[in-house]
Hints:
alpha+beta, CATH 3.90.470.20, 6-stranded mixed β-sheet, 5-stranded mixed β-sheet
Amino acid sequence: MENHIISAQNLSQTIMFSDQNMYTPTNIEVDESYLLYHTFTEKFDPEIWNYYLNILPKKFQNEVFKFRRWQDRYNCLLGKLLVYLGHYLFCGSPLEFSRFLKDSYGKPYIKDSNIHFNISHSGNTAVCAFSKQSIGVDIEEVNDLDVTMFDTVFNPDEMLRINADGTSKFYEFWTIKEAVSKAIGKGLGIPLLDIKIKDKYVIYNNNEWQIESYKMGNKYCTVASGICNKIRIKEIEF
């Protein structure tokens, strides 16, 4: 699958978070999805941090402060702000956070909305995918690791391909399985070994899931959905 991996940065359009009210709401077609992402390189000035933090109600602010590392706090905050911005871009109105809920499996959703979304973050990058169908996204920073320890996650054919291509293939395949698992929405109830990677799609329980994988600097990111998707990528600047 390596020949399918392209740089998300080469495909993306930049949107300023502060200019959201300047954009005409975009209707998401059934066969397309949007991937919003932000990569930070340093801390916000305290005044700017407080401005963005105060967009969230107290409940969500408390979730941000559960994290000790400032990078994790940023990712938690940015993930929620990407949902907020996506709702504005695709629904034409600010998000009422009282409608930002989690189902019994812990998957977030917006009550009474036909827009599905999914959040992921790793290192210094937060991503959020939007669609009118079930969707999952996963991003992982590439680090050195012993790939032989994961034979309970990957079947022999997948392990063969990982061993041949190394760590990068491991992270590509890992994000694929995680994204599909999140799209299905049953959390840890889905054994990743049962998700079987083909070429541009994945099989789970006799159902096909379409996948698109991207490189984002030193990270892999995969978007998974139920039908063939056109992925529109937008980099968000804060």
